[in-house]
Amino acid sequence: MEDGSRRVAELDTGFFVRWLTETASAVDREADRLTELDSAIGDADHGSNLRRGFTAVTAALTDKPPPSPGAALGLAGRTLVSKVGGASGPLYGTLLRRTGRELGDAATVSREELARAMSTGVEAVAALGGAAEGDKTMLDALLPAVRALPESFTAARRAAAEGAVGTVPMRARRGRASYLGERSIGHEDPGAASSLLLVAALERSWEAADE
After folding, report:
1. Which pLDDT score, from 0 to 100, does residue 211 have?
2. 26, 197 in Cβ contact below 8 A?
3. Rounded to an integer, what distance in angstroms lies between the CA atom of residue 66 and that of residue 123?
4. Which CATH number do you get for residue 178?
5. Higher per-residue pLDDT: 2 or 180
6. Residues spanned by the domain of 171
7. In Å, how far are 27, 71, 139, 148, 166 from 196, measured between CA atoms?
8. Residue 175: per-residue pLDDT
9. Are residues 102 and 117 in contact, defined by beta-carbon separation less than 8 angstroms?
10. SS in 3 state form for 69-102?
């Protein structure tokens, strides 16, 4: 059952920690696939970089339990920036840190509040990378997901999945893949693929909270 038809609960710190650790597990499972995608149009290190970064995020959350949802995202973002090389560390770090900053010190947040905060985070990612929707980047999964999030976590995951698959026929206009020109067509963007993992982990965390 989709969360849009269920009682809308407030999302507490435990939910956000679960989301981040679930993302880390998903990245670990899919790291080889992410690297394979990146080998076609990038530097062949996306999966290994994110695995290292999110492993460090899990350790940081255990070592220093955050006091609020915003603090959890801020800690994760700072850890990714410090542990992940290439573009993925700064981009994912910016997404999580800016989202956390928008949530502030609130002990709980609603899904709608998370959607607004993530929208600000995604805008910061776009500004950092100089990219827009349709450029064959992580934004092609994140922007549709954020637009759908006020409806439900399931709608956000479906939108991210459609966005990630939708990058296959695109020609890359930003990032390492843009250097390939027409040869970037026919490949799924690895950043969009990893962004889908993040959004899918959000849905799974909600389902776990409702069990």
Report:
1. 54
2. yes
3. 25
4. 1.25.40.340
5. 180
6. 10-209
7. 10, 23, 10, 13, 12
8. 74
9. yes
10. HHHHHHHHHHHHHHHCCCCHHHHHHHHHHHHHHH
How far is C-alpha 150 from the chain's CA centre? 16
Token match 């759908």: residue?
148
| Residue reference for tokens 């560390």 | 89
Q: Which residue has the tokens 């995202």?
A: 73
**Does a structural domain hold residue 185?**
yes
- Lookup: tokens for 155: 């709608």
User: What mean pLDDT comes out for the span 49-71?
Assistant: 97
Determine contact, residues 72/66, Cβ cutoff 8 Å: yes
- Top pLDDT among 44 and 24 is at 24
Residue 182's pLDDT band (boundaries 50, 70, 90)? confident
The pair of structure tokens assigned to 79 is 């850890």
Give the pLDDT of residue 27. 98
